[in-house]
Design a protein that fits this description.
Number of helices: 7
CATH superfamily of the largest domain: SPOUT methyltransferase, trefoil knot domain
Structural class: alpha/beta
CATH architecture of the largest domain: 3-Layer(aba) Sandwich
Bound molecules: S-adenosylmethionine
Number of domains: 2
Strand content: 15-25%
Distance between the termini: 42 Å
Helix content: 25-40%
Order of helices and strands: EHHEEEHEHEEEHEEHH
Radius of gyration: 23 Å
């Protein structure tokens, strides 16, 4: 899968994809990540990519023409890729969106900077995405966050380093607590059942911990999660009202 980040700060994006599991996925050809310098599509002697807002006001606004030219080229280079505009006004990114985006052949990220973008840029993209109700200085971190979440869903990227089935949101619930050695640390003991070797009991304990944790921290997730009778009974015992 290809990821192209259209940005005024390409160097910001590169190092993240050089190390760790994602770096290995790049080396193995499972993903390709390219930071594309927006200024390469600017024109004129000063290669201007931003200008003062019509109507006045603070800050600069990213111009539409360089972005339009860049997207014309990137769409030709990456047929079928979905173009995402990073904006705090977009649809909120979550694991379900990550799963949907992982089915695309490629993603192109348009990263804003400064006060924002010329409104007409919105008409050039397929979708507007926000990483949460917070305003950052640029779209590069949101783009990298989304690439990270999407890339790790692709076949082979995680290898044996992790299981996608067990983790938070995979089945609509938060993940159960995890422990590793030592069995006791500063008086805090690993739950006995995890040391028992009884796989059925461990699976039951984990499921119940998932339900408890989700009820305590993100109760709204339970409304959409698939729950069986045992799950419901356990939740009722914990005080959840249907
Ligand atoms: C300072 S922000 C502009 C915010 C804009 N003035 C507004 O109020 O909606 C500059 C750029 O950072 C990126 N950005 C900031 N917060 C973001 C978020 N929560 N999700 C995605 N992108 C974000 C966008 O690309 C945005 O164009």
């Amino acid at each position: 899968m290809t990821f192209d980040i259209l940005t005024l700060f390409p160097d910001l994006c590169r190092s993240y994809f050089e190390g760790s599991i994602l770096g290995k996925a790049v080396d193995r050809g499972l993903i390709e990540v390219r930071a594309r310098f927006l200024r390469d599509w600017a024109e004129g002697r000063h290669l201007v990519t931003d200008d003062a807002p019509y109507g006045g006001g603070d800050g600069m606004v990213m111009k539409v023409e360089p972005v339009a030219r860049a997207l014309d080229d990137l769409r030709a280079e990456r047929p079928g890729a979905r173009v995402l505009l990073m904006t705090p006004q977009g649809r909120r990114f979550d694991q379900a969106m990550a799963r949907r985006l992982a089915r695309e052949p490629g993603l192109v990220f348009v990263c804003g900077r400064y006060e924002g973008i010329d409104e007409r840029i919105r008409s050039l993209v397929d979708e507007e995405v926000s990483i949460g109700d917070v305003v950052l200085t640029g779209g590069e971190l949101p783009a990298m966050l989304i690439i990270d979440a999407v890339a790790r869903l692709l076949p082979g990227v995680l290898g044996s380093a992790g299981s996608l089935d067990d983790e938070s949101f995979a089945d609509g619930l938060l993940e159960y607590p995890q422990y590793t050695r030592p069995a006791e640390f500063r008086g805090m003991k690993v739950p006995e059942v995890l040391l028992s070797g009884d796989h059925g009991a461990i699976a039951r304990w984990r499921r119940r911990q998932q339900l408890r944790r989700t009820l305590e921290r993100r109760p709204e997730l339970l409304d959409a999660a698939e729950l069986d009778e045992d799950d419901r009974a356990w939740l009722t015992g914990l005080g959840r009202k249907d």
